[in-house]
Automatic annotation (TrEMBL):
Record carries keyword Ribonucleoprotein: no
Molecular function terms from GO: UDP-glucose 4-epimerase activity
Organism in which the protein naturally occurs: Candidatus Sulfotelmatobacter kueseliae
Protein name: UDP-glucose 4-epimerase
EC number, as in UniProt: 5.1.3.2
Family that this chain belongs to: Belongs to the NAD(P)-dependent epimerase/dehydratase family.
Stored InterPro entries: Epimerase_deHydtase, NAD(P)-bd_dom_sf, Rhodanese-like_dom, UDP_G4E
Pathway membership, UniProt: Carbohydrate metabolism; galactose metabolism
Length: 342
C-alpha cells in the first residue's frame, strides 16, 4: 500500500497529506467533503460526470469530467491518488423501484468499474457513501451496525452489493474500506456557498422551506397514521458538514493502516415530519402550507441511528442539530436563488 508520504514527494509537497480522488465531488455531499478534506490539509481531485452535479460546486478544485464507467478516464487520475471517496450514485428510493436498470447500471456496474480501476492502479483505500437503506425495515430502533442487511428496494440492494464487493476486495486484494451508512443528509455549508441542489427535489427539508417561501407547492405530508407519537415518520437528520467530517476521520483511520469498517452516520436523535415542519416555521418565521396525503411507498415509520460505533472507532459525533440543519439549508436557499442555472 502506498504511503501518503510517497504522494507528498511525488507532488513536491511536504507533510503527510493524502491525495484524495473524490468521485462525485461536484454533488451535494461530495462538495462538502471536498472542502472538509482541504481544510484538513489534504489534496483533492474531483471526478464527476456532472449528470446531477454542478460545476460551480467544484469551484477552486481540480475537476476532471468523467464517468465511473470510463475505465480509461479513471486510469488517468488514479495513479495520482492515494485514496478514493465514492459519492457518485443515484439515490432516489422511489425511482430505483421504477427504474432498477438505471440504479444497477450506475451504482453496481459503475461501482465495479471504479473498484477494478482502483485495483489496477494499486489504490486500495476507499471510502464509500453507503446508507441506512441497506438495513431495510429494521426490527429495532435505534439501529446498530449488526442489524441484518435486508434492503427492501433496488437502491438499497445496489448499495449493499457495493459494501459486499468491498468486503470481498478487502479479503482477496487487501483493500481497506470504510462503508459510511448515512441516515438523512441535510443542511448546507455555513458559508452559504454550497448546499443541496436536486432536480427534481424530493427531500423534506428543501420542499418545506420552498413551501414556506412560496417558491414551491404546498408540502404533501406523506402519511399521518404511522405508529409514531404524532403519526408522521421519524428520521435522523445529520448535517452535511458533520457527514463531511466523518469522511476525513475515516480517511485518517485508513491512512493510519487500520482495518476496514462500517459505521452508522447519524445523530442518534429522531424527528418526525411534523417536528421538522415546526422547525422550518420557526427558522423562516413563515407558515408551511401543507396537506396530509397518503403514505409514500417504502417509507419505514422510524429510522434512527445508534451512532456509538462511529464515536468509539473514529471519535466522531454529530455536533449540529435539527435547528442548524434547517437554518443552514434556509441560508443556502436564500443565497442560491438562480445559482443552479448550469
Ligand atoms: N416526506 C414528506 N413529504 C415530502 C417529502 C418527504 O412527508 O414531500 C417525508 C418522507 O415520507 C420521510 C421524510 O419526510 O418520512 C424524509 O423524507 P426524504 O425524502 O427527505 O428522505 P428519505 O427518508 O426518503 O431519505
Amino acid at each position: 500500500m502506498r504511503q501518503p508520504q510517497v504522494a507528498a514527494v511525488r507532488h513536491g509537497r511536504k507533510g503527510n497529506d493524502v491525495v484524495v480522488l473524490v468521485i462525485g465531488g461536484a454533488g451535494y455531499i461530495g462538495s462538502h467533503a471536498a472542502r472538509a478534506l482541504r481544510r484538513a490539509g489534504h489534496e483533492v481531485i474531483i471526478f464527476d460526470n456532472l449528470s446531477t452535479g454542478y460545476e460551480f460546486l467544484a469551484t477552486g478544485f481540480e475537476l476532471v469530467k468523467g464517468d465511473v464507467l470510463d475505465a480509461a478516464a479513471l486510469g488517468r487520475v488514479l495513479p495520482r491518488s492515494d485514496a478514493v471517496m465514492h459519492f457518485a450514485a443515484h439515490a432516489y428510493v422511489g425511482e430505483s423501484v421504477l427504474n432498477p436498470k438505471k440504479y444497477f447500471h450506475n451504482n453496481v456496474e459503475g461501482g465495479l468499474s471504479l473498484l477494478n480501476a482502483a485495483l489496477a492502479a494499486g489504490v486500495k483505500k476507499i471510502i464509500f457513501s453507503s446508507t441506512c437503506a441497506v438495513y431495510g425495515e429494521p426490527a429495532k430502533v435505534p439501529m446498530e451496525e449488526n442489524t441484518p442487511r435486508q434492503p427492501v428496494n433496488p437502491y438499497g440492494v445496489s448499495k449493499l452489493f457495493f459494501e459486499q464487493a468491498l468486503e470481498s476486495y478487502d479479503r482477496a486484494y487487501g483493500f481497506r474500506f470504510a462503508s459510511l451508512r448515512y441516515f438523512n443528509a441535510a443542511g448546507a455549508d455555513e458559508s452559504g456557498e454550497i448546499g443541496e441542489l436536486h432536480d427534481p427535489e424530493t427531500h423534506l427539508i428543501p420542499l418545506a422551506l420552498g413551501a414556506a417561501a412560496g417558491r414551491a407547492p404546498e408540502l404533501q405530508v406523506f402519511g399521518s397514521d404511522y405508529p409514531t407519537p404524532d403519526g408522521t415518520c421519524i428520521r435522523d437528520y445529520v448535517h452535511v458538514n458533520d457527514l463531511a467530517d466523518v469522511h476525513v476521520k475515516a480517511l485518517d483511520h485508513l491512512a493510519a493502516g487500520r482495518d476496514s469498517f462500517a459505521v452508522n452516520v447519524g445523530t442518534g436523535q429522531g424527528y418526525s415530519v411534523q417536528e421538522v415542519i415546526l422547525e422550518v416555521e420557526r427558522v423562516t418565521g413563515r407558515p408551511v402550507p401543507r396537506k396530509i396525503g397518503p403514505r409514500r411507498a417504502g417509507d419505514p415509520p422510524m429510522l434512527v441511528a445508534n451512532p456509538a460505533r462511529a464515536q468509539a472507532l473514529l471519535q466522531w459525533k454529530a455536533t449540529r442539530g435539527l435547528h442548524d440543519v434547517v437554518a443552514t439549508a434556509w441560508n443556502w436557499m436564500e443565497r442560491s436563488r438562480g445559482v443552479a442555472a448550469k
